[in-house]
Amino acid sequence: MTTYAEITGWGKCLPPAIMTNDDLATFLDTSDEWIRTRTGIEERRVSHVGTSEMAAVAARNALAAAGLDANELDLIIVGTCTADEVIPNVASAVQQKIGSKHAAAFDLNAACSSFLYGMHMATQAIRTGAHRNVLLIGAERLTRILDWTRRESAVLFGDGAGAMVLQASDTESGLLSSHISCDADARDVLSLDFGTSFNRFEFDGIMQFDFVGQEIFKRAVKGMSNALEKVFAETGMTTNDVDALIPHQANKRLIDFLAKLCKVPSDKTVINIEKYGNTSSATLPIAFAEAVDSGVIKPGDTIVSAVFGGGLTCGAGMIKWGQRVTPIKPNQEQLPAGELSALDMIVPMHEKTKAAWQARAEAKK
């Protein structure tokens, strides 16, 4: 008998502080129209707490939806590229915060593709019998690593977390097919110049974030198209079998391209980038949670997802939802409000980075 990894729980965590496009225009050479027409983004969230705290809230919401006690978990996977610290990992912090005593816990970094990569791994772990109850999280605090003097990348990203519970099931459900890959020849077109290869004794405060938009878009289209073709071929399904498209929320134009490719109408394409921007590994689970809560996902629906991220990692998956679309317990826990507004948190980082760039330029003269 085949074992499947059914999605039984879902949840999200969005920081309360909102930064609008007009807010960004107060310190960047940009405008609401410039951002909206190029990306579809209208606002994004800025977190006053660490990645692990957001992840824990999303985790508790997903566990509540599944009606599962944290001590029943045997594996916790956190997809993130913005860990609170290098050691220990975010997953262990989540394990501690939710009171899980027995689970294995590790982080996975495939940038924006992390959640689908994690779903791919978690599904295999359940299908082989190695694990039965897996908590999968995507969580990012990207506003802490951006170069806020660079308009082309600073306007794109936001903070947030989302989570799912995957459980062993005899019912055909969950991730039925997935294909993940990496276009490593282009790994430098999306990168953050910070890590153990960085000279910490000469660090001047600049965390240079490189984002070559046109090249990323071109390779993302090719990579996701190939991945989608593979999952359609493996399942024998066609675009007529798809009930909903839930893609990585990176750019409205890219989402529109995927919808056209999959022949999914706009009312069945989940788009929330206007509210949150690109939350990297968190975009997929946040979108799934909102799609279930809003009734877009119905019992037994077939859902297709596609992602891409730094590396350049890429992937697609065909997902069959189970019969339950209502949480067993309330799953709407939220973070308490912080003392600072989004602008109060971001403007000092912009000013310090601007000053650091100016000092670096003076030093080279």
| Rg over CA atoms | 20 Å
* First-last Cα distance: 71 Å
Low-confidence stretches: none
Tell me what the CATH architecture is: 3-Layer(aba) Sandwich
Shape: globular
What is the typical, i.e. mean, pLDDT?
Answer: 95
Helical residue percent band: 25-40%
CATH superfamily: Thiolase/Chalcone synthase
What does the largest sheet look like? Answer: 5 strands, mixed
Q: Report strand %.
A: 15-25%
Total individual domains: 1
SSE series: EEHHEHEHEHEHEEEEHEHHHEEH
CATH topology: Peroxisomal Thiolase, Chain A, domain 1
Structure in words:
The protein is α/β, with parallel strands linked by helices. The chain has a single domain (4-364), classed as Thiolase/Chalcone synthase (Peroxisomal Thiolase, Chain A, domain 1), CATH 3.40.47. Helices cover 35% and strands 22% of the residues. The chain is built from 11 helices and 13 strands. The chain has helices at 21-24, 32-39, 51-66, 90-98, 114-127, 151-154, 213-235, 252-262, 273-276, 283-293, 342-364, and strands at residues 4-13, 17-20, 43-46, 75-79, 104-108, 133-140, 160-169, 174-182, 190-192, 209-211, 244-245, 302-309, 313-320. The strands form 4 sheets. The protein has a 5-stranded mixed β-sheet with strand order 1-7-6-4-5, with helices on both faces. Strands 8-13-12-11 form a 4-stranded mixed β-sheet, sandwiched between helices. Helix 4 (90-98) links the parallel strand 4 and strand 5. Helix 3 packs across helix 4 (90-98) and helix 7 runs parallel beside helix 8. The chain starts with a strand and ends with a helix.
